[in-house]
C-alpha cells in the first residue's frame, strides 16, 4: 500500500483496531505514525521495543497493603488516562519476552488490569527482509493486528520531500 492511502485508511479505522506497518528500513514508517498523530491531533508515545526489557512494559513490582502488583510505567498510565497513539516501533527486533508483553495491549487494550483510554490507538512497525537482524514474529501476535505492507511510491517521496527543508528543489525536480 502506498503511504498516502495508508495514512488515509489508518486515520479512518476504528480506534480499537491495532495496526502493524511492515516494510524495509528507511521508508519513514515512524515518521508516518507521527504524521497520523498530527492529522488526528493526538500525541504519539513512541517506544522502540528493541531497546526495552519486560519491566519497561509491564512495570516493576511493588508492595501495596501486603499485596504485590506491577506498578504501570508512566507512558502506559498516560495512554490509559488520555487519548494517544501508542506506537511500538521495531517490534520484530524486540526480544521474545518483550513481544509477549505486547500481546495483551495489542488485543485486549489493557495490561495488568489497567485499560487503555477508549480513544487510544495502538500502532506498531517492523522492518521486513532477510538482511535485517530481526526475530520471526509469533503468528498469534501477527493475527492481533491489521497488517499492511508499505510500498512507498515516487509521489509519496516527492510529497514528503516538499515538506522537508533538507531536500533541495533540484533533487525533487530530478526525481
Could you write a compact summary of the structure shown?
The chain has eight helices and nine strands. With 175 residues, it is of the alpha/beta class.
Describe the structure.
This protein is 38% helix and 23% strand. With 175 residues, the protein is α/β, with parallel strands linked by helices. The strands form three sheets. A five-stranded parallel beta sheet has the order 2-5-8-1-9, with helices on one face. Helix 1 (3-12) packs across helix 2 (29-40). It starts with a helix and ends with a helix. 29% of the residues are buried.
Give the SSE map.
Layout: H1 3-12, E1 19-23, H2 29-40, E2 44-48, H3 55-58, E3 60-64, E4 67-71, H4 74-81, E5 85-89, H5 96-108, E6 110-111, E7 114-115, E8 121-127, H6 139-142, E9 146-149, H7 154-162, H8 169-174
Parallel strand pairs: 1-8, 1-9, 2-5, 5-8
Antiparallel strand pairs: 3-4, 6-7
Helix pairs in contact: 1-2
Amino acid at each position: 500500500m502506498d503511504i498516502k492511502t495508508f495514512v488515509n485508511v489508518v486515520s479512518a479505522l476504528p480506534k480499537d483496531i491495532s495496526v502493524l506497518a511492515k516494510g524495509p528500513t528507511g521508508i519513514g514508517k515512524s515518521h508516518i505514525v507521527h504524521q497520523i498523530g498530527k492529522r488526528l491531533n493526538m500525541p504519539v508515545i513512541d517506544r522502540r521495543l528493541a531497546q526495552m526489557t519486560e519491566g519497561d512494559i509491564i512495570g516493576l513490582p511493588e508492595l501495596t497493603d501486603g499485596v504485590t502488583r506491577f506498578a504501570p510505567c508512566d507512558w502506559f498510565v498516560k495512554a490509559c488516562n488520555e487519548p494517544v497513539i501508542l506506537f511500538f516501533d521495531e517490534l520484530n527486533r524486540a526480544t521474545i519476552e518483550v513481544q509477549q508483553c505486547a500481546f495483551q495491549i495489542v488485543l485486549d487494550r489493557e495490561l495488568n488490569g489497567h485499560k487503555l483510554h477508549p480513544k487510544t490507538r495502538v500502532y506498531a512497525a517492523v522492518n521486513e527482509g532477510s538482511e535485517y537482524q530481526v526475530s520471526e514474529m509469533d503468528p498469534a501476535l501477527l493475527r492481533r493486528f491489521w497488517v499492511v505492507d508499505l510500498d512507498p511510491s515516487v509521489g509519496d517521496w516527492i510529497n514528503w520531500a516538499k515538506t522537508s527543508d533538507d531536500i533541495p528543489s533540484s533533487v525533487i525536480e530530478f526525481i
